[in-house]
Design brief:
Oligomer: single chain
Number of domains: 1
CATH topology: TIM Barrel
Order of helices and strands: EHEHHEHEHHEEEEEHEHEEHHHHEHEHHH
Distance between the termini: 41 Å
Helix content: 25-40%
């Protein structure tokens, strides 16, 4: 009997997320992203499919590395325009009961005091269904937008993030005791001041403004696969998101992450794109239909930003060498996939649907078997599924793939009770030792 596979939808509050150019398809509705109805409909579909969560990516800044301008990104809607994903969550949470929401927020561009309040608020409003994907950022345009000349060095960003995490743990876990709130109408005491204390951290002295929420600390995601990123994940993350990079490499990363995090348990998700239909022939036809709308310029714009390499300055067959200061694991993945001195032509040839992520294509049964095989061979717990043409790509997974996974005993038939953390791990709503958040708790 295969292990239970978990699914997240991988999306972003924009038109063009990962598979660039799909917004041009006549059936695509991603340009409706400005309406709450669009997001509520997505959330309801995901909950119907028993997805664990909606993983919302985010980035502060624009992709302006290609040619030194943001023109290609703007022209092709490459993650711009882009809404604030946190503001979408309450409406989706009100329309669902079980679906979790993992939202990306960077550690380097705002005080921990403000971010902690927003996540505590969302944890209350969702009744404990909020998660935080912790990122350090990777675009110099984001740094300039915040009044800095450029982002810090890769490892320096992680060092700063360590301090930021300690700040948020102190606020979420250490400012209010679990029994501080009394709501005693007769005595006129809402909260006991003796059970609330100011957090003392370098550069901060504050009482957290929100009373303890169902999870206190949100479910913690992390998506860095570099050596420094994996060290950070081993200390802080509960869920880790890996890019698809070949089964052997994913298996290596999974084993390394679990060894580093031990004895803590991790839920590890790998990115995947599915193109499926009732038959393999229909799925292949759908793939070719989608490919006619691929936006190569948009894909190059995102690749340039995430790799830190301006492809406008290199010839099609000119070897690309050196490292960028963006997503280090992406640079390493390119060399691993194509060998040292890889070229822009190789990158373009790999853009099957407007991204470097090759899709899994086939009938629902074939796709289900492929997902099970990946999980068994690599040890991942599940998949973050990126969208192609909306909403039909999500509906196909829910209506076709999920029943096939269930028939094979590899997918749940109902949600477990409790908070996001309880559903994912089957334990209590609060983080437990040896996680550093537990050590900060005022109990």
């Amino acid at each position: 009997m295969p292990r239970e596979i978990r699914l997240n939808a991988f999306d972003m509050a924009c038109i063009g997320h990962i598979q660039h150019g799909m917004w041009r398809h006549p059936r695509d509705r991603s340009t409706d992203y400005l309406s709450l109805e669009y997001w509520i409909g997505l959330a309801r579909t995901l909950e119907r499919g028993l997805f664990d969560g909606l993983f919302l990516a985010d980035v502060l800044g624009v992709y302006d590395v290609l040619g030194g301008t943001a023109d290609a990104a703007i022209r092709n809607a490459v993650q711009v325009p882009l809404l604030d994903p946190l503001l979408l969550v309450p409406a989706m949470a009100a329309a669902t009961t079980h679906l979790g929401f993992g939202v990306t927020c960077a550690t380097g561009y705002e005080p921990s005091f403000l971010l902690a309040r927003r996540f505590s608020t969302l944890d209350h409003l969702t009744r404990g269904r909020i998660g935080w994907n912790v990122v350090t950022g990777y675009l110099d345009s984001a740094a300039r937008a915040m009044g800095r000349p450029a982002q810090g060095a890769h490892d320096d960003r992680y060092a700063a993030a360590e301090a930021f995490m300690e700040d948020t743990y102190a606020l979420w876990e250490g400012s209010w005791a679990g029994d501080a709130v009394r709501r005693d109408r007769a005595a006129g005491v809402y909260a006991d001041p003796a059970r609330v204390r100011a957090v003392q951290r370098p550069g901060m002295e504050a009482i957290h403004l929100v009373e303890p929420s169902p999870q206190r600390t949100p479910v913690l995601y992390q998506a860095g696969a570099s050596d420094r990123g994996r060290a950070f994940a081993a200390r802080h993350a509960e869920c880790v998101f890996l890019n698809a990079s070949g089964m052997a490499n994913v298996a290596r990363l999974v084993a390394d992450l679990r060894a580093r995090a031990a004895p803590r348990d991790l839920r590890i998700f790998v990115g995947a794109t599915l193109v499926t239909a009732r038959t393999e022939a229909a799925a292949r036809e759908l793939l070719e239909e989608y490919r006619r709308h691929v936006g190569v310029e948009g894909a190059l714009a995102q690749s340039a930003g995430s790799l830190g390499i301006d492809f406008a300055r290199v010839g099609m067959d000119e070897p690309i060498a050196g490292e960028g200061n963006a997503v280090t694991s992406n640079v390493e993945a390119m060399a691993r996939a194509f060998g040292p001195g890889w070229t822009k032509r190789q990158l373009i040839d790999s853009l099957i649907l407007g991204s470097r992520q090759a899709p899994i294509v086939g009938s629902a049964a074939q796709v289900a078997e492929a997902l099970i095989a990946v999980a068994e061979e690599t040890g991942v717990d599940g998949f973050n599924l990126s969208r192609t043409v909306m909403p039909e790509c999500v509906e196909a997974v829910v209506d076709l793939v999920v029943p096939e996974l269930q028939a094979r005993g590899a997918y749940k038939r109902g949600y477990a009770p409790g908070t996001y953390r309880e559903k994912l791990f089957g334990a209590g709503p609060l983080l437990a030792a040896p996680h550093p958040a537990a050590a900060a708790r005022f109990s």
